Write the structure tokens for this entry.
Amino acid sequence: MGDPKSDTEQSVPLCYSVSEKNQMLVVSFTGDLNSQVLASLEVCREEVMRKSKATNVVLFFQQVESMSTEVVSWLAQMQREIRMKPAELRICGLRTNMKERLVKMGIIRGMELADDLKTALLSFERLNG
């Protein structure tokens, strides 16, 4: 069995949104994360870094089917910069195969993973008391 996508099927365009409330920032991604969207991802990174009051950041990979090697490098840089803010980071919504791959590669930390957005947000409440 091969990839369920046909050769003629178009990739899903990247969409992201940044939501901020109090000191919480949620960055939601949908679509295909490949080298063609790196410029958009860089705009996203810059926007997130300008949110200086955010001390809790969630990267929510909602409906992301795949992530190219170039995007993995971008993700590693984004995480480093968030941690240096300093801010607490959670990553959620990753497909199981992507999650396992990124943990094995040492790109994401197991303690920063959450199964879903609600769990990620609640983990900050426990952390911040």
Summary: The two ends are 48 Å apart (CA to CA).
